[in-house]
Every structure is written in structure tokens, then in C-alpha cells.
């Protein structure tokens, strides 16, 4: 009986705009904004935690700003 080979399926993360090699915010010349919960959602886990930089490839300064803006959006109940 042939052994079933497990093939890697593209996870939700790879389809996500967050998985890239350069900083998304610097590329698009925008800064993280709490009034844009849809964009902030790309940098969160399904449970609502902030994804680390080594996964999202966001630069250090943008990551710092992103964390602040995510916390602001949480306070206003725009994201979980
Ligand atoms: Zn950046």
C-alpha cells in the first residue's frame, strides 16, 4: 500500500497580505492607523494577538506604531 504523501496546502497566512518580504506600510507609503481596522486585521492572529515581525516582515518603526494603533483600535472596539 502506497504511503500517502502529505502535500502542503496554502494556509490562510500565505494568502494573507501580511506574509511578504518587505514592510507593507513602507511599500504603500502609509502609517498604521487605528481608524483602518481592516488593514490592522492582517497583522493579527485569528485570536486577536499581534503577529511578530519575523512573520509579517514589518520594519521596526512600523511595528512599534502598529502595536500602538492596534491597542487604540481595541480600546474603541474596532477590533478584538
Ligand atoms: Zn515600515
Helix content: 40-55%
- List unreliable stretches of 5+ residues: 10-14
CATH topology: 30s Ribosomal Protein S18
Number of strands: 0
The SSE string, one letter per element, is: HHHHH
Q: Report, as a whole number of angstroms, the end-to-end distance.
A: 48 Å
The overall number of domains is 1
Biggest pleated-sheet summary? none
CATH architecture tag: Irregular
CATH superfamily: Ribosomal protein S18
| Mean of residue pLDDT values | 83
Strand content: under 5%
Number of helices: 5
Organism: candidate division WWE3 bacterium CG22_combo_CG10-13_8_21_14_all_39_12
Protein name: Small ribosomal subunit protein bS18
GO biological process, one term: translation
Keywords: Ribonucleoprotein, Ribosomal protein
Please provide a written account of the structure.
Keywords: Ribonucleoprotein, Ribosomal protein. GO terms for molecular function: small ribosomal subunit rRNA binding; structural constituent of ribosome. It comes from candidate division WWE3 bacterium CG22_combo_CG10-13_8_21_14_all_39_12. This is Small ribosomal subunit protein bS18. The protein is mostly helical and 80 residues long. Helices cover 41% and strands 0% of the residues. The chain is built from 5 helices and no strands. The chain is globular and about 55 Å long. The protein starts with 11 loop residues before the first helix and ends in a 5-residue tail after the last helix. The chain binds zinc ion. Zinc ion (ZN) binds next to helix 2. Zinc ion binds at residues 23, 25-26, 58-59, 62.
Amino acid at each position: 500500500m502506497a504511503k500517502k504523501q502529505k502535500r502542503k496546502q496554502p494556509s490562510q497566512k500565505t494568502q494573507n497580505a501580511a506574509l511578504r518580504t518587505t514592510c507593507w506600510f513602507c511599500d504603500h507609503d502609509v502609517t498604521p492607523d487605528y481608524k483602518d481596522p481592516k488593514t490592522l486585521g492582517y497583522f493579527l492572529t485569528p485570536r486577536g494577538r499581534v503577529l511578530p515581525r519575523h512573520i509579517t516582515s514589518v520594519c521596526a518603526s512600523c511595528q512599534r506604531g502598529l502595536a500602538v494603533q492596534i491597542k487604540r483600535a481595541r480600546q474603541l472596539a474596532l477590533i478584538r
